[in-house]
Amino acid sequence: MHGFMWYFHEDHHQPKYANVFERNDVFFVIFAIPSIALFYYGVEGGLNYKFFIGLGIMFYGLCYFMIHDVLIHQRFKWFKNTNNKYLIGLRKAHKVHHKHLGKEHGECFGMLFVPFKYYKI
């Protein structure tokens, strides 16, 4: 997302306005199309490896949505008030990642692995 797909991801690193959607949301479509196609071709003549690759892409997309959009950015207010140290550390790490508005010099926050320095309160 910080490479050749930066065009779509760039607005995600900019200050937010009243817009519900951002260009970054196109990644849901980018991941959904091959997943759906692999589901479709993976059930022909019984389940085959294509179905399970599609399932893996779908699970990655679901994890990305739940962790990045719901937990970290709180686009949906499902886990707004949490005292969980892991979730607080994850949010802090991602905030550091967003400190840079450009694609260069951004710090990797880890999607599920949070460096221990972010657990400090």
From TrEMBL:
Keyword annotations from UniProtKB, A to Z: Carotenoid biosynthesis, Membrane, Oxidoreductase, Transmembrane, Transmembrane helix
One family name in Pfam for this protein: FA_hydroxylase
Chain ranges passing through the membrane: 26-43, 49-67
Tagged with keyword Transmembrane: yes
Domain of life: Bacteria
Domain Fatty acid hydroxylase: 1-110
Key word Transmembrane present: yes
Similarity comment text for this entry: Belongs to the sterol desaturase family.
The protein's name: Beta-carotene hydroxylase
Organism: Flavobacterium ammonificans
